[in-house]
Amino acid sequence: MDGSGKRVYFSGPTAAHNDAALALRPPRGNPATVGAEAISPHFEPRRWSLRSDAARPFIHLLCLSTGQASVRFAAEEMQTWSGPSLVWLPAGCAGQLDIAAGAAGHLLRLRTGLWHRHLPSSAEPAYLDLAGTEAVLAFAVSAEFAAVMARSIAAIAAELENPARRGAVSILSAELTLCVLRFWRLFADESAGDAQGSSAEILSRFRRLVEERFHQQLRVADYAALLGVTPDRLHALCTGALKRSPSALIQQRIVQEAATRLETTTATIKQIAFALGFKDSAYFNRFFVKHTGQAPGAWRKGVSSQRTAGQARAALDFADWP
Question: HTH araC/xylS-type domain: from which residue to which, for each copy (predicted)?
Answer without folding.
Answer: 204-302
